[in-house]
From TrEMBL:
GO terms for molecular function: carbon-sulfur lyase activity; metal ion binding. Residues 2-131 form the CENP-V/GFA domain. Belongs to the Gfa family. This is CENP-V/GFA domain-containing protein. Keywords: Lyase, Metal-binding, Zinc. It comes from the Eukaryota. It comes from Lentithecium fluviatile CBS 122367.
Amino acid sequence: MAKGGCFCGKVTFEFSGEPVKTVLCHCLNCKRITGSAYSTNVTVPSSAIRTQGTPKQFTFDSGQGPIFRISFCDTCSSALWKESDAEGFKGLHLIQSGALGPDFDNYPPNGEIFTPFRSKWLSPLEVQQFEGTDSGL
């Protein structure tokens, strides 16, 4: 069972089982959400995650079709997970892997998405590469 939470500890979560997939996302929204060059998303079935505390949510248009809700702590602003009712995302939590703390290393990526937006100074990982969200992973 993996555990995680926000920086201040107000919102915590845990999930059981193996992730559906883990991807690096290079889209511009994920860069803004994380304040970094990409986000690492550990995707798990929503039924496998249990949360404690009530995160705040912000809804945004991905610009690629899906509308996402991102959950974050309203005290420390840590991004925790994203959800969407769009095809291919419904019933899933896309956990921001940095929120996993020490469990982060247990979930290496098996793909990279939105690769045209990868920062020019980053080299591709030796995993599957996809130009959009249709990773097929």
